[in-house]
Amino acid sequence: MTAAQKATWIGSISILLWGTLALMTRLTDGEIPPFQLMAMTFFIAFLLMAVNWWRQGDSGLRYLRQPRLAWLLGVGGYFGYHFCYFRAMQLAPAVEVSLLAYLWPLLIVLLSALLPGERLRWAHCVGALLALAGCWLLLAGTGAPSTEISADMDIGTGVETGGQTGGETGAETNPDYIFGYALALGCAVIWSGYSVASRTTKSVPTAAVGWFCLVTAVLAAVCHVLWESFVWPSQWQHWLGIIGLGLGPVGIAFFTWDYGVKHGHIQLLGVLAYAAPLISVVLLLLAGEGQWSVGLLLACIAIVGGSLLAGMAKRSSAAV
């Protein structure tokens, strides 16, 4: 296994963890305000990395000295994405916001062609479009519960936003939602831009991501104070969900994604990212929430088929 293949496998761990967002978020019962939950989970992610520093006999302070670009990408990517996502959820229908925000894997595939040494093949584009179609079919066709599920599936804290959106699911395009839609597109641009541009900061160790998480937690706490009321988790399940999110989908996932996009096959990771919503919905169905459908099967075929097509393209290019 080459170093790039190993990094790709490590990066794919993030996708598996993001697939657990909805199930873990259900444990919080949707009672924790979005920015409060974001602050708590990103702080836990920082603590997770701090433990890793301690195990290595390091205070972690040396990782503070990073190029300005690395800080801009890290904090801008983490905080910028979630800020736009949560605000979009408040201004426009949840499903439509998620459909627009989930353009980021496709944008990663396309923007990666701008990187030195990367070549965009037709199979990458076709695979990404096929997986995108499956993702949209999955999000738009899950029925009434899709408002909650789609909010949970995006990267980040997986906050429950059902009933907090700017309109009903499936509503006709409304000019009042334009700003929300623009923020949703901003999510896609921010996260894809962060992922692709991170290749230019390969020298920045993944250990530095812990500090990016801490700054993101502080900024989220400021937003919480400005716009939300604090809610103390009242049940042990709430704490289990918060800790689980902070350790997995927010903690380990961002660390492995950083390593994967810097050193792995970024086009393949972009296409594989469409598996996250599929994993999320399947886990919810296995937990007894929702029902299997033909639409879900078709979405599964499209996402898996697109991923396999992109994977074949990468293998063929490696053999040349």
Automatic annotation (TrEMBL):
Transmembrane found in the keyword field: yes
Superkingdom of origin: Bacteria
Name listed for the protein in its UniProt record: EamA family transporter
PANTHER family: ACYL-MALONYL CONDENSING ENZYME-RELATED, EAMA DOMAIN-CONTAINING PROTEIN
CC terms in the record's Gene Ontology section: membrane
Keyword Ribonucleoprotein: no
All copies of domain EamA, residue ranges: 11-139, 179-310
Matching Pfam families: EamA (PF00892)
Signal peptide limits: none
Keyword terms: Membrane, Transmembrane, Transmembrane helix
Transmembrane segments: 7-25, 37-54, 69-88, 94-115, 122-144, 178-197, 209-227, 239-257, 269-288, 294-313
Matches recorded under SUPFAM superfamilies: Multidrug resistance efflux transporter EmrE
